[in-house]
Amino acid sequence: MDDYGQRFNEAVAAQLRAERAAKGMTIDQLVAVSGISKSQVLRLVHGKRDIDMRDIASLTQALGLDPVTLISRAQARMAD
User: Fold this and answer.
1) C-alpha span between 59 and 70 (Å, rounded)
2) Residues 67 and 77: beta-carbon distance below 8 Å
3) How many CB atoms lie within 10 A of CB 20?
4) Which pLDDT value is given to residue 1?
5) How far apart are alpha carbons 65 and 2 in whole angstroms?
6) Residue limits of the HTH cro/C1-type domain (predicted)?
């Protein structure tokens, strides 16, 4: 059975990687700006940990995005 939550988490992680790459931001820069530990950021952007709204808020702020934009793009990624 397909787990929507897992697929959504993976889509958000993939979108975070894409947004970071589009901004030309390194993981270390994302860590510094977001205030989230490097190990945690790595787990989040690789889909190894469920992402919560606080993490989404911190990461999108660091990337100069609105959280709704990230989630909308992740949902579109799931539809593809």
Assistant:
1) 10
2) no
3) 19
4) 41
5) 29
6) 16-70
